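pinned: reference chain
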Amino acid sequence: MAKVGDADIERVRALIAAVPPGRVVTYGDVAAAAGLSSPRIVGWILRTDAADLPWHRVIAASGRPATHKSNRQLELLRAEGVLADDGRIALGEYRFVF
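pinned: its structure tokens
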């Protein structure tokens, strides 16, 4: 993984915090907006520093939630009006553009 600095982490955190309720972004969307080389960096940041962020609004490019937290993530999204069809979020309908 590319070296990730504090400025990168804060940029990713700010971007995720800016995603409004009822919208989602992909890991790749966040990485591109933050100028990072890989969506995996966003995943790493979320795994290590997301307790105070709306982490549930970040999904895979396939529209699927994180495998290990899919039930909780879909539950939180559903509470915001984001509905899944067979476990997949329709990015065309719910995607937030930075």
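why pinned: The longest strand covers residues 25-26. Residues 6-17 form the longest helix (12 residues).
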